[in-house]
Amino acid sequence: MSTTIRTTHVGSLPRSDALRQANADHAAGGLDAAGLAQVVQAETAEVVRRQADLGLSAVNDGEYGHAMTEKVDYGAWWFYTFERFSGLSVLSPEEAAASRRPTPAGKLELDAMSDRRDWVAFAEAYQDPTSGIHLASAPPPVVPAVTGELSYTGQDAVARDVAALTSALRAVGRPVSDGFLTAVSPAAAARIGNYYYEDDEAAVWAWAQALREEYLAITEAGLTLQIDAPDLAESWDQFVTEPDMGAYRDFSRVRIEALNHALSGIDPSQVRYHVCWGSWHGPHSTDLGLEPLLDLAAMVSAHGLSFEAANVRHEHEWKLWLVHELPEDRYLIPGVVSHATNVLEHPELVADRIERFARAVGPDRVVASTDCGLGGRVHSQIAWAKLESLVEGARLASERF
């Protein structure tokens, strides 16, 4: 019996010129919600068709419902929350410094606006505009913040995205179960400043309650929900001083409990959990390894675990699956092509990467993927070429089984 190793990607795909322009027109008041929805539906149909033509097994809307107006955009995966939740504002740095809520004694405080330890360690490189990584050093002109009660206001937007994807799937003859939509985790959303709730944990739980409505809208349509949760690994580098591991695990455990509350009643087989170390192009010298996080990730009510495995800072961690048993109901979604390099991975290399995981946990429990979203991180032509290499590498790896 032959084995076919399935393929997917993490979510964000390059936006079309028409979609970026529609987003800009909508933000400027020149295009109403109905007009934007028409463009989203048409462009989603095209991006789904293109994924299907490539042979990807699990496809999505390219995150076309998460507004992006520029070709390079590292933040659309979470900044879409400003269009779908009440209680959010942008503050000046002076306003933020004067009004941020205190953290209770003995608790870790995540200062999302501080320089990462990696940025400090490689300050010369990050501050050099010729280095290729200087984007990370640009200070935010405003501070995104929770300044009022959080509630979900994105019902029309998520309904638009669900309708666009399900319609596109039908058009290419694919079942709804082959489609996924992405949504931010409560903990990732809560990394913006809290200026309203009693403390950080209260803000995380408020996000969980508000996000639950979006999670339900996606899964009740029969689609798979991908939780974008860079918070689990990436938050480690956002503390000014490296935290105690026990304290960091406690910090993360609270956030997973809040996420599971938001996922309560949702079939875990419809959920995949994406862990990454951030999308910026830089050394990542202070990244936390994957091993201390495996048991925490296993606590999430999600059967799929998506993570970076082509990233050269973490590629060696595939060996963890030789010694750590994958729970029986789970499967892996390892990245085998990277968003962090313009070099196009050879299909044979992709096949080698896939084969490592397939031999460790079984080919039927591996869905080959990208490290992170490609949209806004690499040029469109390169992004689609990487997906071609991904599919061809999976074909080669399948032949080996």
Automatic annotation (TrEMBL):
Keyword field: Transferase
Keyword Cytoplasm appears in the UniProt entry: no
Pfam family, one: Meth_synt_2
SUPFAM superfamilies per record: UROD/MetE-like
InterPro entries for the chain: Met_Synth_C/arc (IPR002629), UROD/MetE-like_sf (IPR038071)
Transmembrane spans: none
Domain of life according to the entry: Bacteria
Every Cobalamin-independent methionine synthase MetE C-terminal/archaeal domain range: 199-394
GO molecular function, one term: transferase activity
Protein name: Epoxyalkane--coenzyme M transferase
Originating species: Actinomyces lilanjuaniae
Lineage: Bacteria, Bacillati, Actinomycetota, Actinomycetes, Actinomycetales
